[in-house]
Write a structure and sequence with these properties.
The model has no long low-confidence stretch (mean pLDDT about 85). It contains 6 helices and 3 strands; from the N terminus they run H-H-H-H-H-E-E-E-H. The protein is elongated, with a radius of gyration of 20 Å. The protein is mostly helical. A 3-stranded antiparallel beta sheet has the order 1-2-3.
């Protein structure tokens, strides 16, 4: 078995993860409940080996010589490692990247903790400081938490999808 054997499987898994996280985010952005609930661990555990495979695949299939590395700009290196991805895919990837940074900001400014139901109350226990929430406040906080973690991890699945996709080879411009 070669590394190319696992590439289509990894691509399908990364695409499925991206679509699943995108569905959750779009639902929450439209003010609807999430079609299914996921936790940090449920996203991270499949993403970690998938991301590891993507890095391993890129290192094996697209090595850079020291001369090439010094001649290429940072953006040229990104384009090189992502293969022959079309410009529209790179544009979508850039939008997802910016959205992931926004979701990281959401996570750090209030979405880091998901309220839990304890003794008939929704609450957050932050280092001994217990904050109670109403049902409506809980829904807002829970949706913020869910949107922040799914939006952040979306970028990992997106990069993996673009890097592993079977893009057709670009034709060289004869001029």
């Amino acid at each position: 078995m070669t590394i190319q054997t696992f590439k289509p499987i990894a691509f399908l898994l990364s695409l499925a993860g991206l679509v699943g996280l995108l569905v959750i985010n779009v639902s929450l952005l439209l003010g609807k409940p999430a079609p299914f609930e996921v936790s940090f661990g449920q996203i991270f555990l499949p993403m970690f080996p998938l991301w590891g495979f993507t890095i391993f695949y890129l290192n094996k299939t697209r090595p850079l010589s020291p001369e090439d590395s010094q001649e290429m700009s940072f953006l040229q290196k990104i384009r090189y490692f992502l293969g022959d991805a079309p410009d529209w895919a790179l544009a979508i990837l850039a939008v997802i990247y910016v959205y992931a940074l926004y979701c990281l900001f959401l996570f750090m400014t209030g979405g880091i903790m998901d309220p839990v139901y304890v003794n008939g109350q929704y609450q957050i226990n932050n280092h001994g400081n217990v904050t109670d929430f109403t049902e409506a406040e809980y829904q807002i906080r829970h949706n913020l938490h869910l949107r922040s973690i799914t939006g952040f991890f979306m970028v990992f699945f997106a990069v993996s999808s673009v890097a592993l996709a079977p893009w057709p080879k670009r034709e060289e411009d004869p001029s």
